[in-house]
Amino acid sequence: MEDSRRSAAAQFYMDDVGVKEKPNYNKVVSLLNEATMCPDPQIKTELLTRVKDLVLNKESTLLKNFIDEILAFQTDRNAEVRKFVVAFIEDAIKKDCEILPQVIVNIQMLLEDRTPQVQKRVVQCITQLYRIVLMWLARASTISDEMQMVWSVTTNMKGFIINMVDSENDGLRTQIVKFLEMLVLLQTYPEADSLRRNNDFSLEDIPLTLKVARRRKLEEEAMTVFDLMIKFHGSHHISSANLMACMGSLTTIAKLRPLFMGKVVAALETLHMNLPPTLSTSQVNSVRKHLKMQLLNLLRHPASSEYHTNITTLLTDLGATTHEVMKAFPKLDEIKKRTKKSNSDVPSKKVRLEEPQPISESAIDITEAFIIERLSPELAANLVITGMASLPDTMPAVFSATYTPIAAAGTQGQIKHVARLLATQLNAAGLGPGASIAKSQKIQVRSSLIEDEDEESAPATVASIPIDDGMDEDVNASKVPAKPLKLEMFSLTQDVRESLQVSAIQRVLKAEKSAITGGVSNVRTKLISTIASSFGEKVRSAILEFILADLKNQINLALSWAYEEYSFLQGFTKRAPNQLEENLNFDKHYDNYVCTLINAVINNKEMKDREAILKRVCLEVPLITDDITALLKEICTKEVFGLNIIYNLVLMRPPKQLAFLSILLENTSHQDSDIREAAINHVVELYSKDDMKSHIEEHAIFYFVFLKAPTPPKILFGVERGRPQVSAVWTDDAVKACLYLYLALLPIKQELIHELARVYIQTVADVKRTILRVVENPVRTMGMDSPELLKLVEECPKGSETLVTRLIHILTDKSAPSMELVARVRELYHTRVSDVRFLIPVLNGLTKNEIIAALPKLIKLNPIVVKEVFNRLLGSSNEVGAYSSPITPSELLIALHTIDPTKCELKTVIKATSLCFSDKQAYTQEVLAVVMQHLMEVTPLPTLLMRTVIQALSLYPRLIGFVMNILQRLILKQVWRQKKVWEGFIKCCQRAQPHSYQVLLQLPAQQLIDVFREAPDMKKPLLDHIMEFTENQRAHIPQNIMDILLGPSSPVHNEFHIKEEPLSPPQAPELTIDMKEEAEDIPRIFSEPAPPGLD
C-alpha cells in the first residue's frame, strides 16, 4: 500500500536499488516531509541542507529522483529557503550538467523574484552557470532541442540581468558588474600575453560549427557589454561600492584581455578628473586609493607599455611616490620580448573584432593632437578665467580632500596629460574632430562585420545541409505562376470557419515550447492576445480555457489579453466594422474577462499560490472597474487574502484609493475575527500616511459615536458584515464592532482617549461594561507615561469615574505606578472625587501615612475589593510582587488594630484582620510576634489585641512561650481595667492550659476570683496543678490565693469538666467583641491578644 502511493520514478528507484541504499532513500523522504511541514525557516533550511548533502555528496544517484521535490521549495515564503534552492541548483549543475534542461526554467523564475537578496544569489549562480552552459554546448556532438531550449532561456536571462544594471539595490548592482565581467572574458579571445586562469574557457574554445552560439555574435555582444561597463563606470550617480567593483572588473579585463587596455586606461583617466559628486569625503578617499592600486596593477602588466606615460602621470596626481611607480614597472626584458613578439606575430586564427578598439583610441588621439596644437598659455588662461564663473563660492570638501599639487606643471608631459584628459571628455560628449571620424569608422566596421558574418555562415550552411538532386526542378516548378484564388469558389459556413479558427489557435497555443526555443515567446503572446480580443466567442472561449487550465504559468498571456481589451475599451485600438455589427456589447468584454479571471482564482480552492496570482492580476491589469471593485469587495468578506490584495491596491492605485480604503474600513467591524484583524492591521499601517489619516480617523469616530444611541444602527448588520440577524439591543458583539478600529488607533493617536471618556458618559450600562472590558490592551500599550492619559486622570469628566478608575487599574496591574500618575490621582482624590476606590491602583505609590489614613474607608468596600487592596499592599499577587510596598505587613496589621472606632465598625475591622491572617506567606510567626509586641505598648490596649493573640497562637502553636510572656506583662498593665481585653485575657488562659496556670497564679486574688467566675472549669485543673508542687514550692504561693482555691467557696470538683488539651480558638465570627467606652487609662506595657467577640 505504501509503495502504491509513491511516484513512478520513486517506485522504479526502489525496485532498482539494493537493500543497503534504501536507508538513504527513506532518510531523504523523511527529511523532505519534515521540511515541508516545518514552519521555522531556519530549521527548514537545515533539513534541506542535509537532503542536499545526501543527494549530491553521499549518494548522487538520488539526485534525479528528488530534484523536483527540492525545486518545489522555490515558492517558499521565506527568502532564505529560496536562496537555498538557488545554491542547490548551482551545485547540482556543477555535479551533473545534464540536468540543465530540467532546472533552467526554475532559475529563470527565481531571477524574477521580488526579494533583492534572492535575485543577487541568482545572479551569482548564473555567473557560474553561463560558463557551464557554453562548455556543455561546445562539447556536444549534436545540438538537441533541449540544448536549444536551454541556450534560449540562458540568453533571455542574460538580457534580463544586463537590463537590471540600474537596479535600486546596491549589492545587486555589484553582482551584476561581476556578471558583465564574466561575459566579456568568456566571449572574447585571449591574447598571447594574457594572464591565464585555471581551467580557462574563452571564445576560441567554441567550435566554428556551433550554430546556436556564433562566435561573431558573441564577440559583438561582449564589445557592447564592455561599452556598457565603461558607461556605468562613468555614471555621475554611481555608489562608491559599485564604482570600486566596476574599477576592479575593468582592470581584470584589461589584464586578461590586453585588447581593452587602452579603453580601460582612458576610463580611469576620466574617472580621476570626474569623480561622482554624490560621494562623501571618506568615500572619495577610498575610491582614489582603490584607483591608485588598480593603476599600479595595470602598470605591472607588460601590455601597458604603450600607456606608461598616462598611467605614471595619473599615479603622480594620486600621490604615488617615485619608488612605488618604479617598483611597479615591468622588467625591460618583458617589454622587449612583447614588442618583438607583436611585430613578428602572424594571425593564425580567424580575424577577430579588433577594429572597434582603434576607433575609440584614434578618436581620442586625434582630439588630443588637436588640443595640443592649440593649448597655448593664453588659451589655458582664458579657459581658467571662463571656468571661474562656474566655480562655487566655497571650495568643496571633496576637492580639498582629494587635491594633490601638480609636481611637473608646465612640462611637456603635463601638457600632454591635460590635453588627453580634455580629449577624453570631449570624445565622450561627441565633440571634437575625432568624434565625427569615429562615427564614420563605426559605420564602416559595422558593414564589414555583416559581410564577415555572411562569409562565415555560408560555408557552414552548405556543409551541413544535404542538397537534393530534385531541388532544382522543385524550384523551377515553384516559379510557375499560380492561378489566382477566388474566395467565392470556397465559400465556408459560419460553423466551419469558426471550427478552423479554433483549430488554428489551438495549434498556436500548443506551440509554447517551440516559441520559447525560437526566442519568439513575446511575439506569440502578442498574437494570441490580439486574436482573443478580436475574434468570436468560440475562439475567445478556447483561449480562455487554455489560460485557466494553468493560470499560474499563463499569467503573462492573461495580462496581455487584458491590455488588448483595454486598448479597445479606451479607443486606442479600433475594432473592425464587422465586429461592431456582430457584437453590440463589446464594451463589456474587458469587465467580463477580468471578472472571469478573478472568479476562476477564487473558486479554485486547490490552486497553489492563489493569493499571489490574484494579487498580480489585480495590480497589473490596466483598469479596475466598478464591477471588479464590487467583486473584490465580496471576496474580502469571505477570504483574508482579499484584504491583502485590497491593501496593495490602496497603495498602488491612487485614482481609486479611497474606494479601496473604504472596503478595508468596512471590514474592520466584521464579525469574523480573522477578516477583522487583517483589515485592522492594514488600516493601522495606512494610518501613518498623511493623505489617508483623516479618512481613517473619521470612520473610526463615526462608528464609535454609534454607542451613544439607545439601539445599535442597522449598518452594523448584514451578511457582508458577518451578522445576518439584526439586533434591537446592544449586544457585546455589536458594541465591539464599533470599538475595534477606534481602540486600534488609540495607542497611535492618544488624543482619542478624551473622546472615549465623553462618549462613555452618554452610553447605557451594557455598553459601559463592554468598554471597560475591551479597553485594556490599547491602554496598556499607551502606558502610564502617556501625557493624554495623565491629562484624562487629572480632568476626569463627571460620569467617567468608573472608566478612569479602570484605566488606572490597567496601568498599575503589572507595574508600579509612576510618580506623575500618583500625583494626579492624589490631587483628584483630595479636590474633586473623594471615592477611595481611585486610590487602590496607586496604593503602592502613596506614603505610609496616606495609606493608614485611607484604611477605614478601604476596608468598608466589597470584600473582594478589600482582598485586592491587601494583595497590592502585601505583594501577594504575582503581578505586583515585583515591587515593594510602602507599608510592611506588620505595620498594616497594627494600623488595623488602631483604627478609630468612630470611623469604622469593629466587625469591619475584624473581617479585615481575618484577611491578613489568611495570608500566611506575609504573616509568619515572626511578623505576628512583632505585631503583638508593638500592640502591647499601645495605650489604651487595642480592643482586638487578645483576639489577635488567640489567632496567632492557633496558627503557630510554637508561639506559646511568647504568648505566656505577653499574658504576664498584661497583668503588670492591669489588663482587668479594660473589660473587653480582660475577657479576651481569660479566654486566652482557657485555651492555653496548662501553660497559663503559672500566669493565673500571678493574678491578684480579686482578679483570680473573676477568672473562676467567668471560667469555673479552670479552678480544679489549677488546684490539681498546685497540688503537684512540693511543699517548698507551695510555700511561695500567697495564702489568699490558696484560700480561693481551697476555701468553702470552691466549687465541687465533680462540677468541673476539665480537658487535658488546650482548646483551639473558635472561628472568626465567634470572636466578636462588644464595643463600649473604657474610662480608665492603663499604663503602657506589652500588648496582648484581643478578647473574644460579643456573645
TrEMBL record:
Coiled coil: none annotated. Keywords: mRNA processing, Nucleus. Residues 1076-1095 are annotated as: Disordered. Its main location: nucleus. Residues 116-336 form the Symplekin/Pta1 N-terminal domain. GO terms for biological process: mRNA processing. It comes from the Eukaryota. It holds the Pfam family Symplekin_C. GO terms for cellular component: mRNA cleavage and polyadenylation specificity factor complex. The keyword Nucleus applies. This is Symplekin. It comes from Rhynocoris fuscipes.
